Amino acid sequence: MQCETPVDHFEAVLPLAAEWAREQEQLILREGEPLSPDQVADARAAGVRDPERVRVLAVKQIPAPPHPILQAASATIEFLPQAPCGLTLQYGIFLRNDRRQDRHLVVHELVHTSQYERLGGIVPFLRDYLTECAMFGYHEAPLEREAEEIAAQICGA
Questions:
Q1: What does the alpha-carbon distance between residue 73 and residue 75 come to, in Å, rounded to a whole number?
Q2: pTM to 2 decimals?
């Protein structure tokens, strides 16, 4: 008998997660604001190849996936910390209203956009990111650490 690993479990929920991410990205692209000229410069420094495609949508609260399977998977790996301040879904970035002007946070999220580009889009990014969160935990996931390190370099923190 073969045991199911967290990675196997996330491969099974990956299509649901990708569908939700695409829907949220489209919402942000429709309703969000383009980057300011300074943010475009930060995006380029963060490695974003196509910063003109990025949109930011400020919201009261970052939405969580409504599907019970995705909620359970997210809780299992602590994919989203409690009350997250930002969430990047390829070219769409949610920012909490109270953190909209936080340059470090914006750059951190822009690094995630560059990771989506580098890895080949939503499905490959989510596969790697969710696997890393399952294996190492949210704060120790290599893609998360990379975003934090590059944001600190660019912002001088």
A1: 5
A2: 0.88
Beta carbons of 112 and 75 less than 8 angstroms apart: no
Around 26, how many Cα atoms within 13 Å sit in the side-chain half-sphere?
6
Among 134, 156, 157, 129, residue whose Cα is nearest residue 145:
129
Q: Which tens digit of pLDDT belongs to each residue from 1-54?
A: 444 444 556 677 788 889 999 999 999 999 999 999 999 999 999 999 999 999
H helix intervals, the chain: 6-31, 37-45, 68-77, 103-119, 122-136, 142-155
Is residue 17 within 8 Å of residue 70, measured between CB atoms?
Answer: yes
Tokens 């934090």, residue?
A: 148
CB 107 within 8 A of CB 85: no
Segment 52-105, tens digit of pLDDT: 999 999 999 988 777 666 656 565 555 555 668 999 999 999 999 999 999 999
Q: Is the dihedral of CA 85, 128, 110, 57 positive or negative?
A: negative
The residue among 124, 93, 100, 112 whose CA lies nearest residue 151 is: 112
